[in-house]
Amino acid sequence: MKLSISPSSVGGSVCAIASKSVAHRLLICAAFADNTTLIRCDELSEDISATVRCLSSLGAKIVRDAPFYRVTPILELQKNAHLDCGESGSTLRFLVPLTCMLGADASFVMAGRLPERPLSPLREELERGGIVFSDIGSNPLMCRGSLNTRDFTISGSVSSQFISGLLFALAISGKGGSIRIDGRLESVSYLSLTVDALRQFGAKIEQTDTLFSVAPNSGLSSPREVSVEGDWSNAAFPLCMGAIGKHPITVTGLLGTSHQGDRAIVDLLLRFGAKVTLCADECTVSPAPLHGIEIDASQIPDLVPVLAVVAALAEGKTIIKNASRLRIKESDRLKTTTALLTSLGATITETEDGLSIEGVSRLVGGSVSSFCDHRIAMSAAVASLACASSVVLDGAESVAKSYPDFWRDMKSLGMNICEL
């Protein structure tokens, strides 16, 4: 889908969508609990649907009764299940160690760039525990065998999703065990979300900087009803529009005390110079003169594309560092963010592990691609507010991966959007 986004004066309020990071975790816990769980999840996305699809293939009964998912847990695990992960890295990385621990002999089908995204060092650690995989690069990825260990050691610098997957495996199997972290642990906040979800279902987990210990249990216990909190990652896009636009923008339905790492958008926009008001369940960002800052992206990689847009309009230089993991996302986001903003007239340079951006007073507009990446597409929409002419975006449908109603919500804020 190709859209033309004309220069717009946006403002107003929009409700945060449900956090797909939280939804993945609650759905997995509910599928392996002792009783039916109602999960309030106001929005759908392709990634959430992938997890629902895979859990259903394993034997869960999951019914959508908006705004709830009704999850009837697995009574008999379906072995040799064919699990369609779509492009969802979370679905794949959470369920591979879990199915290996349970001996499900599953096959994982992947789409888009997912087959190219790394499964190491998780793969090697599972092989050490007795699992046999199909060849590297194969699609579907087949896993055979049952893990013969409950104690793991894994690098913390590649993906926190590997560690989350092992936490699910140890807690849901009831066997308990430990995960020792080798080296620096990145995306710590996402592990907090995993621990939070498992604890809601009765798991007992202790953690230090380098060790997670999961106590043996007799099974997860359903809390009967839980809610998926609002998503700070996707709220960042309208909030950044408030920073570079002409009028304030409010996002409601956000938990101010959330463990989501991308809640850091509040502090980052304040550092840029924007006016930010945070209440119990909403955040408002108003425009103000912006200035360049230095950003360590190691804990907030998903915010980099839209932060780069803000930086492109901030006076002076912004340095974004420790963002090398962006090269293994839905696109190489260091390259695609650079290509997007260069096409729109920004002064941006790609570095080995980040970006260097010199702010300009205005962007020019032009034709750009989403590179089949939802966060690049949404960043293009944010950038359009500061362009002298229209932004023509090819691949606008990619937003469905995490925020299917993005374009509807942007129109409600006053964005001028026309399908070509």
Description:
This protein is an alpha/beta fold. It folds into two domains: 2-16 and 230-419, UDP-n-acetylglucosamine1-carboxyvinyl-transferase, Chain; 20-227, Enolpyruvate transferase domain (UDP-n-acetylglucosamine1-carboxyvinyl-transferase, Chain), CATH 3.65.10.10. It has twelve helices and 24 strands. It has helices at 20-31, 46-58, 89-102, 122-128, 160-173, 188-200, 232-244, 265-272, 304-312, 333-343, 374-384, 406-412, and strands spanning 2-6, 12-15, 37-40, 61-65, 68-72, 82-84, 107-109, 132-133, 141-144, 151-155, 177-182, 205-207, 211-214, 225-227, 249-252, 275-278, 282-286, 294-296, 317-321, 347-350, 355-358, 366-369, 391-394, 416-419. The strands form six sheets. The protein has a four-stranded mixed β-sheet. A four-stranded mixed β-sheet has the order 2-15-17-16. Strand 18 (294-296), helix 9 (304-312) and strand 19 form a beta-alpha-beta unit. Helix 1 runs parallel beside helix 2 (46-58), helix 9 (304-312) packs parallel to helix 10 and helix 9 runs parallel beside helix 11 (374-384). The chain is globular and about 60 Å long.
SSE layout and pairings?
Layout: E1 2-6, E2 12-15, H1 20-31, E3 37-40, H2 46-58, E4 61-65, E5 68-72, E6 82-84, H3 89-102, E7 107-109, H4 122-128, E8 132-133, E9 141-144, E10 151-155, H5 160-173, E11 177-182, H6 188-200, E12 205-207, E13 211-214, E14 225-227, H7 232-244, E15 249-252, H8 265-272, E16 275-278, E17 282-286, E18 294-296, H9 304-312, E19 317-321, H10 333-343, E20 347-350, E21 355-358, E22 366-369, H11 374-384, E23 391-394, H12 406-412, E24 416-419
Parallel strand pairs: 2-15, 3-14, 6-7, 10-11, 18-19, 22-23
Antiparallel strand pairs: 1-23, 1-24, 3-5, 4-5, 7-9, 8-9, 11-13, 12-13, 15-17, 16-17, 19-21, 20-21
Helix pairs in contact: 1-2, 1-6, 3-5, 5-6, 7-9, 7-11, 9-10, 9-11, 10-11
